[in-house]
Hints:
Layout: H1 2-73, H2 78-101, H3 106-134, H4 137-163, H5 171-194
Amino acid sequence: xxxxxxxxxxxxxxxxxxxxxxxxxxxxxxxxxxxxxxxxxxxxxxxxxxxxxxxxxxxxxxxxxxxxxxxxxxxxxxxxxxxxxxxxxxxxxxxxxxxxxxxxxxxxxxxxxxxxxxxxxxxxxxxxxxxxxxxxxxxxxxxxxxxxxxxxxxxxxxxxxxxxxxxxxxxxxxxxxxxxxxxxxxxxxxxxxxxx
Length: 196
């Protein structure tokens, strides 16, 4: 009987232990479920935060683009005038620095004068193209006529200056240098006169 009683107690103990293992397993599963749920919640929060940041970035980019378009549409804005004036100042400084580096042969001086003229001519054309966008058609037509006359006057002055060195090695350089100087002055003049 003792054996039977002992066996019964053992069975009860084993059963109790088995229930505890099942409950422990359930508790572990519940903890794991809670951890998984917490991880999913964190991931969802991160995802939402990321989406919010992307939305904010997209909204900011759209606002920046709208601002840029609005600035481009402003005719004769002081910002545009300042922008172009700064471009000319930068070009002037760049050419001055390059001039310090060139040699002293006539060929090098003439090549630099040609480069200088080409760069100032490009700058003048850029300013002129901007004015074509900004000015009313009637005012632009007037500027076109003025510009054609200015080109004739510039070239005549360049010929006059070059004539002082007629037949000499400086004749070509003086012609190109005068064109460059007058083109530079005209670039600033167009900004001052038409981009108020």
